[in-house]
Structure formats: structure tokens, C-alpha cells
Amino acid sequence: MESGKYTLGYKTVLKSFRNWKGKLIIIAKCCPPHRKSEIECYSMLAKVGVHHYNGNNNVDLGTSSGKYFRVCCLIIIHPATAFGTVLHVISTSVLGITPILHDINGTRDPRPEPLPDPYTY
Amino acid sequence: MVKFLKPNKAVIVLQGRYAGRKAVIVRSFDDGTRDRAYGHCLVAGIKKYPSKVIRKDSTKKAARKSRVKCFVKIINYRHLMPTRYTLDVDLKDVVTGDCLQSKDKKVSASRETKKRFEERFKTGKNKWFFTKLRF
């Protein structure tokens, strides 16, 4: 399967830390502060990047992941191929657009949209 | 991802009788064993922290206050909070896999770790580890 691997949710994020899997954590803005600092603590020890998603709340993060539920934190285990959807999330959230991430959902577009230039991995 | 639940890592126990106590990982089993199908580790921790020794204390009292009571336990990774601290006390020969099989082995392992922890406490290093976590 070529698409990226991810899991959603606080419990699976911690589980991935304990299994030494994962490349990037994305936390919603409305994540409770204790939970946010716990995830940040674990990621500091594991040297994993944390990205604070720029949407309004966990509803937005859930929508961007293509799900119909709220997502407070998610971890990306394998990013999809080079023009990664990970980068797509980050770049578009930085631009302030909430994308529907087909790739993160598992159905892969045959030709991914090219990323805007300034954003290189 | 960097592995952080490694031997010599100081952790805080979150659940059980020893919740809130600091411990050091002696041996970690990331993939679990046949008996325990989850990630767990063998830790040696402090059951009773040493009290604060003041200048006024006589040597006898200071010695009494510097006592550390230890425990040895196998704990699931879920029930630990890793910290950024490490404690490099060599406990590998003392705290082994089979020391939890019988009560007297466990007691002798705890006694030996108690000695090593007390030595380390008296040198004044690793102060964080020997202070009680306030919560």
C-alpha cells in the first residue's frame, strides 16, 4: 500500500511513542493543556516533531483528516511518497486553508497537486 | 524516533501502590514476553525517600534520615511517565529477571539496590531522583 500511515487519537499517539513509531504529531488548538504538554514531553524525549494545527478546533482537524469525528491529536507513522500529504497539511494549515486530505484517508490521488514553492521539506 | 525507555532512564510510576514514586529502568522489554504480551520493563524504585538532613542533626540522626527504601517491580510502559533524567547506577547484576520469582530473592535484590541507592544519595549526585515528587 503506497499511501501514508497515521493514527488518530490520544491513546494511539501514546501507544505509538511506546512502540517507537511515528514521524510527526499534529495537535489541535483546543487540545487540553495537560494533554498537550504530555504529548510535547514525550515528543521531546523521542525527538519527534510536533505541529500545532492551525484550524479552530478538533472538529477542523477531524474534517481535514477526512473523518466525521473530532480529532484532538494524530500521529503520522509513514508519510506518503515524496510530495507528502503531511507537507500538504502543514503547508495548507499555515496558509489557513483546511484541506480534505484524500491521501491521509488512504485513497490516493494518482497525481498529487504540486505544493506551493516556498514549502520544502 | 529515538527510543527513550532504555535502561538507566528515570521514570515516574503512575499507577499502583507505588504511584508517584520515582524509579529507574533496569531492563526493558519493548515487545513483551510470552507471559506479558505488552511492552514492560523491570524497574527499581524508591519506596520511601530519604528525609531532609539539616546541619543540626547528629551523625547518627543524619544516617537515619539518609535511609532509602527500595522496591523492584515489573511495570507496563503505560503506567510509567518517562522523564529527561537518567540514573546511572549499575543494577543489572542485582536486579535480574528471576529476582521476582520468590520473596527472598526479591528481598535480597531490594536490599542490594537500597545499598546502591544510599551510596549514590550520599554522594549528593542525582538530587532530583531522591527528592519526593510533590503532587
From TrEMBL, chain A:
Domain Ribosomal protein eL8/eL30/eS12/Gadd45 span(s) in chain numbering: 1-79
Name of a matching Pfam family: Ribosomal_L7Ae
Cellular component terms (Gene Ontology): ribonucleoprotein complex; ribosome
Segments forming a coiled coil: none
MF (Gene Ontology): RNA binding
Protein name, UniProt field: Ribosomal protein eL8/eL30/eS12/Gadd45 domain-containing protein
Organism from which the protein derives: Trapa incisa
UniProt key word Isomerase: no
Signal peptide annotation: none
UniProt KW keywords: Ribonucleoprotein, Ribosomal protein
From TrEMBL, chain B:
Gene Ontology cellular component list: ribonucleoprotein complex; ribosome
Gene Ontology molecular functions: structural constituent of ribosome
Key words, A-Z: Ribonucleoprotein, Ribosomal protein
One of the GO BP terms on file: translation
All residue ranges annotated as the KOW domain in the record: 8-37
Keyword Ribosomal protein in record: yes
Top-level taxon: Eukaryota
Keyword Plastid: no
Coiled-coil segments: none
InterPro entries: KOW, Ribosomal_eL27, Ribosomal_eL27_CS, Ribosomal_eL27_KOW, Ribosomal_eL27_sf, Translation_prot_SH3-like_sf
UniProt family annotation: Belongs to the eukaryotic ribosomal protein eL27 family.
PANTHER family xrefs: 60S RIBOSOMAL PROTEIN L27
Name of the featured protein: 60S ribosomal protein L27
Phylogenetic lineage: Eukaryota, Viridiplantae, Streptophyta, Embryophyta, Tracheophyta
